[in-house]
Amino acid sequence: MRVSKVKSKIRDDNERGARQAILEDLFNDFNRSRFTVYKMNFVRGLFFGFGSILGGTVVIALLIWVLSLTGALVPGAASFVNDIIQVIQRK
């Protein structure tokens, strides 16, 4: 019973090592130089940052819109929502 566990562990380790070697070969085939990898990651970072800013702007705009609708529907929260909208419009 114990020998079969050891054999299974060795087989799993060999498969994992073979998969890792294949992935490293593929990576090195597609990316011959470190400069291209750095350039690709830099551009990817720029697009990630731009997308984050754009997405955050859309979410905040939708939140303000929903708050303005809520302020019109709920009279007690209207002054709170109007204060938030005025603070945002001032900046």
Q: What is the structure about, briefly put?
A:
The protein is an all-alpha fold and 91 residues long.
Notes on the protein architecture:
The protein is mainly α. It is 93% helix and 0% strand. It has three helices and no strands. It has helices at residues 2-30, 34-73, 75-90. The longest helix is centred in the middle third of the chain and has 40 residues, at 34-73. The model has no long low-confidence stretch (mean pLDDT 82).
Which value, in Å, is the CA radius of gyration? Answer: 28 Å
Largest sheet: none
Distance between the termini: 72 Å
User: Helix amount, in percent?
Assistant: over 70%
Strands, total number: 0
Shape: elongated
Average pLDDT, all residues? 82
**What's the helix count?**
3
Enumerate the spans where pLDDT stays under 50 for 5 or more consecutive residues: none
- H-E order: HHH
How much of the polypeptide forms β-strand, as a percent range? under 5%
Broad structural category: mainly alpha
Compile the SSE list and pairings.
Blueprint: H1 2-30, H2 34-73, H3 75-90
Helix pairs in contact: 2-3
Summary keywords:
elongated, 91 residues, 3 helices, mainly alpha
